[in-house]
Amino acid sequence: MKKCALWLSAAAVFMLAACGGSGSSAPAVAASSPIEVVIGCNVDTPYGTLDPVHEDGTILWIIELAFESLVNTIQTPDGGVELAPALAESWEISDDGLFYTFHLKPGVKFADGTPVTTADWIWSLERARDTEESPWASYAAPIKNITAPDENTLVIELTALNAPFLSMLAVHNFCVQSKAQFDKLGADEYFQRPLGTGPYYFTDWGMHEFYRMEKNPYYHGKAPTVDVLQFNVVEDDNTRIMQLQAGDIDVCLTPPANRIAELQADSNLNVQIVNSTEQRYVNFNITRDYLNNAKVRRALRLATNKEEIIKIAVFGYGEATYNVYPRVIGQFFNTDIVDEGYDPEKAKALLAEAGYPNGFTTEISFTNGNTVVEGIATLLKEQWAKIGVTLNLTPMEGAALSEQFDTLNHTITMLRWSEDTNDPQGLTDFIAVYNQSHGFHTGFNNPRVTELAGIAAGTVDNAVRKEAYKEIQQILYDEAPLFPIYQATYFLATRKNITGFNQSPLGQYDLTNLAKL
Asked: What is the mean pLDDT of residues 399-408?
């Protein structure tokens, strides 16, 4: 069903007749011959919202074009991750680690031209903390109180010392949003029409069809030169590429690895290849029969030939890995884990020990039309068959798949994590705080991991934090509720006349210098 957001755009009024409504809360600024870039994407919102407090998944990289937080995470030249100022120009932390004082960038406005006030900040941060259904609520849980001594200063008081808190503030659920817009529209309508301070804002939305954004005429940073971004939802990889080659779209997000050489050879196109921080996982629902035994899960990991998957499914664009945590966490990465590797014979022995000497039949669900995950699933079927496990393949529409694993109604699926902070607590909470994502959509609820997550967050002693994270990583390896296959590579293809459409190793889209020639 198509959902229409009835906004007056900066260039014209969009879809009012089709949607059957009128009125506006976004700016009506006249423009002639707007410059438009059309992007084909394979991501969608399964939750019926564009609200960054509620939303999950890679759709966030589109949503983040409309919103900003106090701080931002950036990639360093050496491949690391560090914090940088965003809407806070500077900050201080009290000696006891309980008070964070932020000095706000002056003159920032929302996309409707109204000024951002400290009341908006207080409401936004409290909402991030108090929205229990948010997948990211635990990140804001340490907040005790928020005050504003003046309109340029924000003070956040924590309930207790929380070492990763500053890093977590870079996550999207902490962005500032318009309280006036929320009060005017009410929660249900606001979910389709949230208002932020980013370089673009949403002007129209067709559920499972498209997202239309226009440049924010009140943006405090470098003004975009492209007026309109039209994101068309095209889940099928081959269809998306065909549209790019025909000139129907200007940008193709996430083209599959098996088409990269072809796209590079096309004189009408440019291809961007980025070494990412993202890892791709096999996620088990450990509440299911067979999969509630760690020996079975370890056996399936042992039966997975990761190098073959990288060679065939992603044409060598990937690096095999074994730790649930990505290497970008640096000093906190557990290098002491001894990887069992690929060993089908040991896998058979483990299955026999678990009581399944003849194997069993199970199922893996994945996004229909996604060439990469379909290729991985096909190879897993072949590989696991060697130890007697029959793997049935179930392709699904993206929204249906998200609903399935969000409610633990899947058996096995493939998910991913892109590390976008400089602290491992983000992934740790996603696994350890059970009501946040059911243990990264696995049903894994380990009291010791939860305890260790609290220890790691509650101290600034790096030695203590390292030991806590080290043990968490070892538990996850031993219990194997999920396991990574490889660290991924990002691909992006554009028409030759498009410049400056960039994707960072953290996943976010940098359109600072976007132009259509």
From this structure: 91
